[in-house]
Design brief:
The chain is mainly beta and 442 residues long. Helix content is 4%, strand content 56%. The protein has three helices and 20 strands. The chain has an 18-stranded antiparallel barrel. Strands 1-2 form a two-stranded antiparallel sheet.
Amino acid sequence: MTLACFMWLNAPRVWGAEPVVEVFTQNERLSSGGVGGEGGSSSGGGAGSGGISATTDSEKTKRHSSLPVLITFGVHAGYDSNSRTTANSSGSLFTDEQLTLAYDRTRGPMDLHILSGAGLVERFGLKTDINAFLDLSLTYLASRRLTLKLNIDPAYRAEPDFASDVGTTGRAGNYFTMNDGVSAAYQWSRRFSTVNSYSLRIIRFEDSFIAALTDREEHTFAEEFRFDLFRRTALVGDYRFLVVNYDSFPRDSITHFALAGAEQSFSSRLKAQLRAGASFRSIEQAEYQVNPDFEGSLDYALGRDSSLSLTTRYSVEEAAAGLQSSVSGSTLGRTTFRTGLLFHYSFTSKISSSIGLNYHHDDNQSVTPVTGDTVIPPTPALSTDAYEFLLSLRYQISRHIDFDIGFQHTEVNTSGQAQQNLFGQALQYSRNRYSLGLNFSF
């Protein structure tokens, strides 16, 4: 399997509204942006659903499949310089075997896309990772004016996700995420349309201690208003209502988002969008918070199989897992700047390359706990910088076989004197992963 490069921005997910770009290559949910598909990641819910996606390797290979379902089996081997994501790195060799299935069907008003897969990452002397995902997307044109959409996106993985606020920035055991959404878009007139949507995100960790501080459900209700000002320019306004319910930790919250912006098609190749506004958040046992909110994207198609995509976002997010105070009732608020870049270029019909970059800066600000007459010292403020760089090169040997090599570098740095979070995970580490392998498609 090719190196998976992905970008996901984490705002309240607005299914059908498409406020933020989503870009990925084949089997990214198994790969977590990893080399040779090691690990597995999907950014999840609470984020703007993608509006523009680059052509995936799965889509390219589908042209050579004689079956209704595209079947891809990948075998890779490589070296991980810090497989445990600790401050004192310990390297290991690994092998990676994956199986993915892709199915696309368009009949009349219905458009169905299914991508699913499962894989094993075996490290010598270490625990074997099991990864699986399902990505189902259904669009139904109920009438000339009404469009209905359904998305179902469960995933089970072990690798950290650098593109969303799910989990920690280091390995924390296997966890399950579910990102589901429904939306209804209605064209009221030639220029004016609306999108009503609801999304659900569920997060569950296997480790009981991590689960006690992290497991939660997020419900997002959203309304988007769109006015086509000119042929290539549209004005947009978004309202989002986010409810977060934790299973155990006392950090439930309610957040209102109000955003306004524009979408611009400069040409058939170049598109951009921008939204800005504010969020208004009420957190259990904490002060009321008001924060600025910003999101934007740029997508440029260089050619048939070459593209450049950039996404950027600044917003409030759930407190970083493991950085909460050990004192009962103390709560952290977090504002995060995220940006992601993906460049895919096809040198020839057989040779292609991808470069990906994900970066986020978190300000985990302390807030004053509200517990009646009891005064609890706030948690010291912490800031985190984390990024991952990905590079892959792919060669199509034949219609059904391709060879790829990949490299990934990740690095995490957290301010302050603390070396570990509450889970005993390193707050600062670096990691390099290298892989090569073959993919067989039928």
